[in-house]
Amino acid sequence: MFIHSIVNVAYNSQFFISRFHEALFHYSALFDMFEANVPCENEERMLFEREILGNEILGIIACEGLERVQRPETYKQWQIRTQRARLRQLPLSQGIMKTVKAKVKNCYHNDFFVDEASNWLLEEWRSHH
Predict the structure, then answer these.
(1) Smaller CB count within 10 Å for the chain: N or C?
(2) Strand, helix or coil for residue 122
């Protein structure tokens, strides 16, 4: 069994404006999530934002061609790839989905939720921006 976990964004475009718009949406949701859950003076948060997210954003915005390392794509694009590779997708267990949804509702921030689409379990943050 192969379990595929991806960041469901589409800032792999060759066009800067499209790439910038998708990256802006994605990273603003991430920063919104951090703001709601982790104090801004938290050392680990500051390190993660500076060293990990900062480098990712820099690469997306400033790099072109082979220099651009981050090339995430949507789950729909990955689904097509896995089908072409002749991998067979198994259905999500509705019992597991029900358990996960209940856990998220009872134990996580109200803006975090899970859903199902095309047998993919999707995690999402409802950004208020």
Answers:
(1) N
(2) strand
